[in-house]
Write a structure and sequence with these properties.
homodimer; 241 residues; mainly alpha; Tetracycline Repressor, domain 2; 13 helices; 64% helix; DNA-binding; transcription (chains A, B); Tet_transcr_reg_TetR-rel_C_sf (chains A, B); transcription regulation (chains A, B)
DNA sequence: ACCTGAACACCGTTCAAGT
DNA sequence: ACCTGAACACCGTTCAAGT
């Protein structure tokens, strides 16, 4: 009972911290401000969150927990992979200030492992050889995180005319910009671009997949539908539960 | 003369700040610490760097300046693109603490534009249609930045046995991890993996290229080697200088 | 068991002042 | 023209103390 209370209080504190980051940015996320929002003295936070660094790790946990339901999406491997990717990007829009923490902190919490596991599963179901699965998982998650962060931090943003102006002002120093002035004049649609990049990565994945393994359904169903001899390696556990 | 002195002093301050970040991390990068390293009072920095935020932008500038020579690499489009990508990753290893700033600040300085221009040029030379060039440039630069940051911040890192242990401890919650336990047991070579991902992106690029445009040499030579009728759009300026 | 209050060693930045 | 010093409003975190 007391233990449960501690966990609940911890979540209460982390939720307040994430809300504060959402509303006023990472710079405004001080232990003192979080404490004030929870209605307590700064020192009262320490037994629950350790210190500020651990509090930031806690925010990562909280965001991963929000993302996790996407890992349960049913359907073909590419449907599942797309769902997780789009959920990952949507998370960035919901928590633009805290989101970059995902890229800078090791993903070793149970929820992070579960999420990675769902991506591993999708890649395995796509027919990717085991040796390539972790690498392609990192390729996809790097894309999702990097793209979303580029978007929210404004790295891609200079859709305002000033960048274009500056680029052409550079003149001979930026000839390719001049050659592309037509397409650079119209700002891109970031939703469309994200999906296009994801499509490109899906092609990369299928290009690495075994020729015979074009199964697009979850492992159990695929295993049931295929003759056992098409399995390239023994599957240990979990297939029937 | 006085103007030049100001620029030189600014660079001196930024160089000291970058060195400080390299040696003691971003958290240790205070205005006071930079000032002490330069041998001056904190307030003396302000006329040169504006404020702390602008100082961080200055570090981005400094890193881009280090990266820029890679944009001058000669050779075929893919050679040039690879050179820039590998230089971008090498930069991360040289400045692990400051590097993530590249992902979080808009790239609108002249050096940034020059770098993007070199990537645009490589993609154009690859035969990518103009409409796809900016998107694929963002795909490539997102990969380089995201991968390098994942590497230096330890997001990929749990090559230590603990992650694997934790994943398998999760048991039924991480079945794909179990299925992959063989490949997950051996830590990846990050150099090789970076290159493999880059190869994948090069394939994406060529898959988007015009069928006839497999030119692998800089624009001027390619333009000279091909009949003018194969050009899909008029090239404005720069081609002959 | 849970929280508070005072204190310490830091921050970034302002302002008025020095030479 | 270039820099300093004192001051202000903040930080994260410690410690001893309250109830």
């Amino acid at each position: 009972m007391a233990e449960l209370g501690v966990e609940a209080r911890r979540r209460e504190i982390l939720t307040a911290a994430l809300a504060l980051a959402d509303e006023r940015g990472l710079d405004a996320l001080s232990m003192r401000a979080v404490a004030a929002r929870v209605g307590v003295t700064p020192m009262a936070l320490y037994p629950y969150v350790g210190n500020k660094d651990a509090l930031l790790d806690g925010l990562v946990d909280l965001m991963l927990a929000e993302l996790l339901p996407a890992a349960g999406t049913p359907g073909a491997w590419d449907v599942r992979l797309r769902a997780i990717a789009h959920a990952g990007r949507a998370l960035a829009h919901r928590h633009p200030a805290a989101y970059p923490l995902l890229l800078s902190r090791p993903a070793v919490t149970p929820d992070a492992v579960r999420l990675v596991d769902a991506l591993y599963r999708a890649l395995l179901d796509a027919g990717v050889p085991a040796a390539q699965v972790p690498r392609l998982e990192r390729l996809v998650s790097t894309y999702v995180l990097g793209y979303a962060i580029g978007e929210i931090t404004g790295r891609f943003a200079p859709a305002d005319p000033r960048r274009h102006a500056r680029a052409t002002a550079a003149g001979g120093a930026a000839p390719a910009h001049q050659e592309l002035s037509g397409v650079l004049a119209q700002p891109p649609d970031w939703d469309t671009e994200f999906t296009a990049g994801l499509d490109d990565l899906l092609h990369v994945i299928t290009s690495h997949a075994h020729a015979h393994a074009t199964r697009g359904v979850p492992a159990e169903q695929a295993a049931a539908a295929r003759p056992a001899t098409t399995r390239d390696r023994p599957i240990r556990g979990s297939a029937s539960r």
